[in-house]
Write the structure tokens for this entry.
Amino acid sequence: MDKVNKVVLAYSGGLDTSVILRWLKETYSCEVVTFTANLGQDEDYDLVKKKATQQGVKEIFIEDLKEEFVRDYVFPMFRANPLYEGYYLLGTSIARPLIAQKQIEIANKVGADAVSHGATGKGNDQIRFELGYYYHKPDIKIISPWREWDLTSRTSLVEYADQHSIEIAKDKRGEQPFSIDENVLHSSAEGKVLEDPWEEAPDYVYTRSVSPENAPDTPEEITIEFKQGDACALNGQSMTPFKLLKALNELGGKHGIGRVDLVENRYIGMKSRGIYETPGGTILYHAHRAIESITLDKEAAHMKDELSPKYAELVYNGYWFSPEREMMQSMIDKSQANVEGKVRLKLYKGNTMITGRESSMSLYNPNLATFESDDIYSQKDAEGFIKLNALRLREKK
């Protein structure tokens, strides 16, 4: 085992990372520095600091990254309209690169020679964290406890915590119903009661939205304004990226929008079932596609649609800092130069319905598209166009 003097741990204060903190000290006889990223999740950060202090941590970093997260990660990703396997809006995936970057920055600041995380050896997050670590510091030592220790279950973690007088939340004891990850973009739940894909997820799994059946019986109409592909105002009020997404979360949650029950293919090879809630992101996704529909050239829009699944796959698999993702981002950002204007939506019982869109950069020409008579388009020209395209079909024999 390599000698480690100081390690920076991505720390939430939950069961896993609380046990990891103690385990790192015992196993590596090293100093542990904790780093907690505030990405807009509902968390008691004073309690997180208290838990770290109780375990003797002297250097505790809790950073407010809410605006940076939405501005520099969520919004650039949403310009690509990414959906992993047709459904997942990548709420957990997009958070990991920023956490990894900040963790390395702290490691450099405090002179740490290692970093550590609480991701398991079965999941995607270990890959996302570690690709980020290696990008920012190629020679960094990475400690992944779940791949090293002999604590093989949640029950064994609880027993370890009891043996070492580690304070853990009461709802972590016994059978953990499911695992949750949160930030301002989404919440995700997986494990235990969700492991049978045939069984409907119990309602208590959902924390950000009401059931569509219990949503208001009256639809609510809103407007979102865009500038160069990014949302900048809600109902005529300019907002920062984080505040706008948070406001959309409240609207979407109220109307039961953004629930996804998905069996997905993890990068590591296995299938897993997750329950995702992305109320504000779902509204934003549909609104962005609506403003693009009148401001993007046909072929540019179709090329973007071809790129989107690949882009989503890169983010999902942890390649945010890869040259191919950056190349795609440059192309996507170029396409957004004229993606500006206003979209009107109606929110109703789990549905996000587009009711209008307008832009000073609009390519939509009502005089050309009309079913009434016009002096712009000769319908006779279509005959030659069709015959040329039918040539190979007519000559197939």
In short: The chain has two domains: 6-66+93-176, 182-296+338-358. Residues 6-66+93-176 form a domain with the Rossmann fold fold (CATH 3.40.50.620). Confidence is low (pLDDT under 50) at residues 172-176. The longest helix spans residues 298-317.
